[in-house]
Amino acid sequence: MSSGDSGRHNALVLSGMQALGGANPALVVALSSLVGQQLASSPELATLPVTTFNLGLALGILPAIFMMQRIGRKQAYLLGAILGIGGGLLATWGIYIASFTIFCLGVALAGCYASYVQNYRFAAADGANDEFRPKATSWVLAGGLLGAVIASQTIIWTSDLTPLHPFMASFFSQAVLAACVIPLVLLLRAKSLGSTSRHTGPYQGRPLKEIARQPRFIVAVLAGVASYGLMNFMMTASPLAMIGCGHSITDSTLGIQWHILAMFGPSFITGNLIKRFGQIPITMIGLLLIGAASAVALTGLSVNHFWLSLILLGVGWNFGFIGATNMVISCYRPVERSRVQALNDFIVFGCVALSSFSSGQVLAKYGWDVINQGSFPIVIALLCALSWLWRHESRSPASHTTTA
């Protein structure tokens, strides 16, 4: 079988793994703040579980890369699934004994699992040829479409199963979904996943400082931070804001479902759009849509306002984050991939962890309007940076070309 066929096979399998793994953060975001309200000693700590999830994700990235180097991506993804099972079970136990600390630890472990899930898109890209690479990334992220449905339906079916311990069955289901990833991992073709092994001969890659000083890399990472950070900042606060406005848990859950569908739905065409219009323009459109989501949220507090804002936020994240991811991929050579990917994800998800924690603080102290108003200066600053980079590279087209 040709390497191209193996690359497509793995991208399809990784898409299925993303569907199950993508349900993990969706369930955490939809329910953790509500569980936090019940278990935490202060309303300002309600979003702390989402923060610990993102912190677990950020801190798990470097160990995940290390394990991929030592035992290969396939075996490391099995380890990630086991962490997901453990996280779901620990969070379930925390709810059962009403321990906010244990619940947060379980959610943090689920975040460590997510650090492996985040690598799926890089595995698909690394195993694809140049022509298929943008589509491979989009295929994997498109698996999140099914993940959104799985997460929301899991919540709807399980939230009332344990009335004495709200949402306990939902987090137990989180462990079951992680277990379902294992058979898919076994279907991966390890030779076509892209190498993450340590370089055994004379190292030919550039120093990490040299790569990180590239204008394209700097702007790409900042765009990824802005796209993911703003999305997470607003999405984390949305369930609490909806409940605070008198809307039901079902309305809140469905809002998160529509949001996640919007996050991953465009992935079927995002790769083609990037090939046709370029990485920078698509990233800019994504940031504009995030700004539009904030504008809609500021115009009203009805269910429709929340839902439309969440949908725009999801599409904006898709264009912004996939565009920024492809910008990062274009900054390194194959021998440099593991270190650059780890640096990018550590920065992005470290900032995402900060955004989720500050989201609860800002919502409790200043309200929903300030949550949305804060996105405008960040969007404007990144649009200026991307415009500058676009003009700079237009004058010197070879400046952003990386060769193997």
TrEMBL record:
The chain crosses the membrane at residues 46-65, 77-94, 100-117, 138-157, 169-188, 217-236, 256-274, 281-301, 307-330, 342-364, 370-390. It comes from Alcaligenes endophyticus. SUPFAM superfamilies: MFS general substrate transporter. This is MFS transporter. Pfam families: MFS_1. Keywords: Membrane, Transmembrane, Transmembrane helix. PANTHER family: MAJOR FACILITATOR SUPERFAMILY PROTEIN, MFS PERMEASE. It comes from the Bacteria. The keyword Transmembrane applies.
